[in-house]
């Protein structure tokens, strides 16, 4: 079956030392924005969601401290289309939610995709070590 949101896997393969953390940071920022939406389903555990958002914010802050100025991340280090690929990937997710009226079923697809994103962030973090 074709994935609903094809992840730009080229983002996981980079030789530049700052590209992996910059990509991970950008994905984390988009995940935070998506999962902090007021349209998330009411049946989701609010305390667990709040806990997750706090952790995401903590990791985002930590990674921002470790990287050069945000404007320099993708300008100096690799093709700009990597940043655009991340933006398009998350725009596709937002469009999917909108097309399905932010239904609980649509959010379940997004929740599963967020899990995949965390796995890809793990790959990127391993590249940083």
From TrEMBL:
Single biological process term from Gene Ontology: defense response to virus
SUPFAM superfamilies: 4-helical cytokines
Predominant localisation class: secreted
GO cellular component, one term: extracellular space
InterPro entries per the UniProt record, alphabetical: 4_helix_cytokine-like_core, Interferon_alpha/beta/delta
Keyword set, alphabetical order: Antiviral defense, Cytokine, Disulfide bond, Secreted, Signal
Xref: Pfam families: Interferon
Record's subcellular location: Secreted
Signal peptide range in chain numbering: none
Molecular function in Gene Ontology: cytokine activity; cytokine receptor binding
Protein role: Has antiviral activities.
Family per record: Belongs to the alpha/beta interferon family.
The name this protein goes by in its record: IFN protein
Source organism of the structure: Syrrhaptes paradoxus
Gene (name only): Ifn
């Amino acid at each position: 079956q074709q994935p609903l949101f094809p992840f730009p896997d080229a983002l996981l393969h980079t030789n530049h030392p700052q590209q992996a953390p910059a990509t991970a940071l950008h994905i984390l920022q988009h995940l935070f924005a998506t999962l902090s939406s007021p349209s998330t389903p009411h049946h989701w555990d609010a305390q667990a969601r709040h806990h997750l958002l706090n952790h995401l914010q903590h990791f985002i802050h930590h990674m921002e401290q470790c990287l050069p100025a945000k404007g320099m991340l993708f300008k100096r280090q690799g093709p700009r289309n990597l940043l655009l690929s991340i933006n398009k990937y998350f725009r596709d997710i937002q469009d999917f939610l909108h097309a399905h009226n932010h239904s609980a079923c649509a959010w379940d697809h997004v929740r599963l995709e967020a899990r995949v994103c965390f796995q890809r962030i793990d790959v990127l973090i391993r590249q940083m070590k």
